[in-house]
What does this fold into?
Amino acid sequence: MKTPLLSICIATYNRAGYIGETLESIAPQLDDDVELLVVDGASTDNTEDVVHQFTQKESRIRYVRLPSKGGVDQDYDKSVELARVEFCWLFTDDDLLRPGAVAGVKTAIKEGHDLIIVNAEVRDRNLSTILQHKRIIMHDNKVYSPSEMEILFIDAMSYISFIGAVVIRRSVWINRDRESFFGTEFVHVGVIFQKPMMESTIILSEPYISIRYGNAQWTPRRFDISVFKWPKLVWSFELISDQAKRRITPQEPWRRLSTLIIERGRGAYTAQHYNDNFPSLPVSRLWKIGAWMISRLPTKVLSSILCNYCHLTRRDTLLRLYDLKNNS
It folds into this structure.
C-alpha cells in the first residue's frame, strides 16, 4: 500500500459519547490517499470500544492507545509523529466533517501550500441549530505568501484557536519547536506563528466543518485559558507587531472589569478564579474590590441583563448570546 497523502489526526480522551458521530462523518471520505488516526490518551470510558467498531470495518482507520494522558498539546504532537504522511489534519473528537471536505483539502494540498486553514460553520451542542454559517467570513479562498504571516495572523488567529481547522505539512510540524508550547492548549498556533512558513498558506472559504459549540473539554477552564493562557501565547510571537496582536486580544484582558463582567455572565468567572489569580497581582485596591464584587454577582441575573443588552444594541454575535442564554 502506498503512503497516504493525508492523515486526519484525532487526539481524544473520554469522548465515547461523541467520537462515533465524528468518525461516521469521516469514514465515507477516506480513500487510498487518506487515513484516519485516533490517538487515545488512555481514556477511562468506552472510547476504545467505539473506535474499534470502525477499525474492524475500515483498514484505513488506525487506533493507538497511549499508556497515559499527556495533555491536548502532547497528544496531538504524538499523533503527528505517528502519522507517516505528507500532511496532517489535526481534527477534533466531537465535531463533524461535511461532505466534500476531504476532497476540498486534497485539492488545496496539491496546489503546494504548507498550511491549509479549513473554514467551519458553528452549531449548538446538539448540532441542530446553526449559530454561525462561517467562522471566517469570505467568499473565495485566500492565499498568503510566507511574507504575509502578519496578515494571516490578523485574518485567522481568532479562528485557529480551533485546532480542527488546521491542515499542516508534516515536515513543517516536525522541524519546528513544539515542546515550548506544551501546556498552552494551543501547540498548533505556536508551531504556525513561531516563524514564517516556507511555502504559502490558504484559507478555504467553504465551511467544511460543523463545530459542536460549547462542547470543548477545556470549557470548564475557559476563564483561565481565554484571559491568561491565550493572551500570553498571542503576545509571545516576535514576528508579529504589537499593533496586530492588539487586534486579537489585549495583552492583559483581565485588567478590564468589563471583561470580568462578561465572563461572569457566561458562567466562566467565579470567586475561586478571583482567589486563585488576583489577590497577589500588582493592581489597585479599588480594582481588586471591583473584581471581587463581580465574582460574586448572581450569574443568572447578570447573564439575562447582558443578553438583553446584546439584543438591544446588536453588539454581539449569536455565539455569545448562546453562551449567555445557556447560563440564564
About this structure: The chain has two domains: 6-212, 219-325. The chain has 14 helices and ten strands. The radius of gyration is 20 Å. Residues 78 and 86 are 16 Å apart (CA to CA).
